[in-house]
Amino acid sequence: MEMMKEKFAKLLLGEDMSGGGKGVSSALALSNAITNLAASALGEQKRLEPMPADRKAKWRKEIDWLLSVTDHIVEFVPSKQLSKDGTSCMEVMVTKQRTDLQMNIPALRKLDAMLLDCLDSFKDQNEFSYVSKDDESQDGRNDDKWWIPTPKVPPNGLSDVTRKWLQFQKDSVNQVLKAAMAINAQVLLEMEIPESYIDALPKNGRASLGDAIYRSITDEYFDPDYFLTTLDLISEHKILDLKNKLEASVIIWRRKMTAKDGKSAWGSAVSVEKREIFEDRAETILLILKQRFPGIPQSSLDISKIQYNEDVGQAILESYSRIIESRAHTVMSRIEDVLQADATAKNPSSDEVKRPPFLRDSLRVSPSGRFPNAKEEIEKLNAVENPTSMTLLDFMGWTVEQGENDTKKDLKEDINIDAKRPPNIVTKNKLSYLDNLVGSRSPTAARH
């Protein structure tokens, strides 16, 4: 109880325990608290093994404290109420938890529990292990994840049962990842763009993108795959820089399209139809980057939104979904490490066993030197080798009848799943994050 009082006192003071009034907003304080809790309780998942019991208990207890704030974020809704004698009925306003929180907080809790259960399932496995640092015969990993322990499998590889079980775990974590990404992206979309970010924008898209990129995007014939092959995207910094430029240009073009006075600073001499085409092209590239490189940090727009956001509910949803997304991505990467070691053991004469583009730790193009087609890439992300594997709805015990049908339709579009549908996502504005591949109406960003 004393620990909880101290934690909430710090949150109320905006992390300024001096009482000098220099603390951050309550929304940012809660967002930072969830992020810091995840760093201290969860740590970095270097192996496929259960979380220590003390750290798991700490995570569950303290995340419940922070999520309890959402129980008191309510909205007024009409409700019919009978009189005491039952002869008349009147409509009164009552309070209930805000709709987006009512639907998404339970879904995120379930996704969180699914990840913990997945790690717990590796407790009794004995077919693969990890090379000890003291093993002198092991040279260690040669890739950019050299600090991650190298998995060790039997000389002939894993058994068929274990391999199928690993694939099953990978499929279920993949569903968790997609659901968390969709929730996080939708929350970020609904956050207001800070004035400080807008004030720092250049006044036209050419200045934001640079002449070369601007000419490519505004050309009469535009192919996003060919466009990406012309860019140098071999490092995380360059990919993030491209995302920042594209997001800034989208905001600029939107403001130009909505400017009422053509003489204003945001007025535009180009037609609205062309601006919409440019915006769609930029967002298509952003979508491809998000799907291809899910591990890159937050963009400048996302960081600015989180920093200046004052909606406590959105802050909690964003930070909690971001933590789950990051953990799911890490678990997927660890599973891929074991599957890659198994494939190498079965076929030692082959060169490096390639991972799917979705989980490559290094930021490279395909072996052929060409970026895969966007639609083909998304199909690869949704491909499941085991046709009998369970969907996220099967794991969570939800039926198609639960929730609002329109909401489920929005979510299905959001994460581009044809046959598998993750948990319901309800947002205040009923906006779809990924309306379709080429018509997405919002900047995209991914976090890891």
From TrEMBL:
PRONE domain segment(s) = 1-352
Give the matching PROSITE patterns. Answer: PRONE
- Keyword Cell cycle in annotation: no
UniProtKB keywords:
Guanine-nucleotide releasing factor
Q: Which domain of life is it from?
A: Eukaryota
Keyword Protein transport attributed = no
Q: Provide the leader sequence positions.
A: none
Task: Please report a single Pfam family linked to this protein.
Answer: PRONE
Q: Report the transmembrane regions from the record.
A: none
GO molecular function terms noted in the UniProt entry? guanyl-nucleotide exchange factor activity
Q: Which PANTHER family match?
A: ROP GUANINE NUCLEOTIDE EXCHANGE FACTOR 1, ROP GUANINE NUCLEOTIDE EXCHANGE FACTOR 12-LIKE
User: Any idea what this protein is called?
Assistant: PRONE domain-containing protein
* Taxonomic source organism: Anisodus tanguticus
